[in-house]
């Protein structure tokens, strides 16, 4: 006896297609939006998961929009962007995050006496030094230029307060750092040290004399 077994095809419900609108490229640090709609009807899709890989995840709002801020990158990079929601086929595309040349500056100290000397170093994204970067204080306190090592020594203002130090160079995004000026001037500090040394010297001489007199009296 032969048995005939009929193999019936499995029926899969057709899932809706998604359509997204996003800029092909965006500068690092800038905001950008991803708009998600149904491909056929054009209706907005709320609550879709939008992932900027590896781990930036947002949901579309009632206006079918998800807002992102482009991550900071050392070089131009392509990022994978996926959109998914139950009942829809996932949508995958890429977006290019464009590196914006910028200056990173470091200070030898974040706090200084009035008139103190501070070493400033200006570097590119790849940590290489920038020569001839212009370094200025917030307000009109003159300007300086970095040397071949990307360094320059600047003089702190003569007024206490917080100051923004800015480094500029060509088309690079400016780099900034904050310097706090307080606790008197360099001269005040030097005078304090000098006076302290004199006091210490007097104490040492006095102790030596007292010891000498003590032993002399015992003879």
Give an overview in words:
The chain is an alpha+beta fold and 219 residues long. It has two domains: 18-98, Sandwich (Immunoglobulin-like), CATH 2.60.40.10; 104-186, Immunoglobulin-like, CATH 2.60.40.1930. Helix content is 15%, strand content 41%. It has one helix spanning 186-218, and strands at 18-21, 25-27, 31-38, 49-52, 56-59, 65-69, 77-84, 91-98, 104-107, 111-114, 117-123, 134-137, 143-145, 151-155, 161-168, 175-185. The strands form four sheets. It has a five-stranded mixed sheet with strand order 2-8-7-4-5, with no helix packed on it. It has a five-stranded mixed sheet with strand order 10-16-15-12-13. It has a three-stranded antiparallel sheet with strand order 1-3-6, with no helix packed on it. The longest helix is centred in the C-terminal third of the chain and has 33 residues, at 186-218. It is elongated, with a radius of gyration of 34 Å. The termini are far apart. The model is unreliable at 1-14 (pLDDT under 50).
